[in-house]
Amino acid sequence: MTATQEYSTGRVATYTEEYSASRAWIYSSIIWLAIGTSFALIAATEMVSPDFLGGISYLEFGRIRPIHVNSVTYFWLSMANIGAFYYIVPKLTGRPIWSEQLAKVSMWLWNIVGILMVLTLAAGFSQAREYAEMIWPLDIFVMIVLLLNALNILMTVYKRREKKLYVSIWYIMGSVVWLPMVYAIGNVIWSPFVGNPSEPNQNLFSGSLAGINDATWNWFYGHNILGLWFTTGGVALVYYLVPVITKTPIYSHLMSMIGFWSISLFYSMVGQHHILSTPTPGYLKLIATMGSIGMFIPVLTFLTNIWMTMRGNWGRIYASLPLKFVLVGTVFYFITCVQGPFQAVQSFNRLIHFTNWIVGHAHLALLGTMTTWAMGAIYYIIPVTLKRRIYSPGLAEIQFWMVVSGFLLIMISLQVVGLIQGAEWLRGEPVYKTVQDLKPYFAVRAIGGSMVVVSAYIQAYNIYKTVRSGPRIQTQMEQSLAEVGG
Ligand code: HEM
Prior knowledge:
By secondary structure, this protein is an all-alpha fold. The chain has one domain: Cytochrome C Oxidase, Chain A, CATH 1.20.210.10. Helix content is 73%, strand content 0%. The longest helix is centred in the C-terminal third of the chain and has 39 residues, at 431-469. It starts with a helix and ends with a helix. Protoporphyrin IX containing FE (HEM) is lined by residues 33, 37, 40-41, 43-44, 47, 65, 68-69, 72-73, 76, 358-359, 362-363, 366-367, 371, 449, 452-453.
């Protein structure tokens, strides 16, 4: 009897059971989504009513914001993607993951880092770099886990039985190799900074970057974790899920490869587009604008490839929940990637820079696109590996509509706010005058946000109940149905 069969007959899973590490990463990610969005709701409410918590320092906006951002990026999305990698890589290489135990050890370490991240940021310890707020000692643990994950995945690929590398494997290998490099650069890891609130700007050792140079490093990192980690990881998931669920080979292998190599070329150029309106060198801005426009190549090749694979299969989204999540994510990805290059053009950038338009765009990418892709992967991997059907497809359906409509309310309200702010600032209105006008929009964002929070808790409940008491898959037909996301 194999370990998986033992599990499906109700016996406790062993520590080395195949895909148990994949599920462990996914379970953690689900909890982090609930935590991260709950913090977000506090932050969103503070933007409507700044004093509603009575000024408790641990819960002030400046501390809650980075806790939210780090929770949903590094501990929800990253953990969900890594969990999915630990499923997809063995499937595509014909080998179990190199070390299930190592994958679980790194999962525990990652969770410990997450808890310390919340505690230190709430206490006011921050590196004060966007997306890189975690302080230096935590950075070291982050680096260790990233390297352990990279080792585990690369060793699995190295020992593979299937000689040909499918495009998802390229994307996954790229992601796990790029992330540690990018993280080290963005966190200026060679210049430890513990961010003690009582001694701001004091480094453990001297030699930190400062001012505009620091911002350049920061945004090289800031956009590369989006482009060479979350995007490439998400694209890997979609390239796996769509052909498997529709039982249709990918439309064009060549296009998928053009997409992979062009994303690695263009994405690494774009970081500076976050600080176009700053006194940084003109050539860096030019490179960033060119790279941003070049991004049309990987985006359009990817989307054309996926949508052409869907030809004749569109009807399946009614029967397959994972497919529904994944495909709605591709539509949001298209909108993200139309907005992106336009935002990198100086004339439009002048209107939206520093406004809430950018926050709306960030949610379009990370919530509308990557979060729905990750949710699709979860609803595929959990039933197939546990051999249990989803406890409540009805609840999953409600989750789908809550996350999609909640996200749309967030994005639309924020981008309207952004345009109002941009127009008024260009007219020379002082910031304080515009603030009052924005309250109703921020209230809409908080309402949309609470729908996303509810969807995160629904997901947690539904997956918990699936693990505990989801109907068992017993017949070959039920198994085949699960394998097409049914
Ligand atoms: C998986 C879901 C989510 C992801 C991945 C996500 C991601 C992000 C990111 C990346 C930022 C930083 C944006 C920037 O560059 O300035 C951010 C900021 C923020 N998010 Fe979210 N978010 C999610 C859900 C939510 C929800 C549900 C709410 C509302 C309840 C929310 C409220 C906020 C707020 C208030 C900020 C700070 C904006 C500011 O500084 O003006 N987010 N989020």
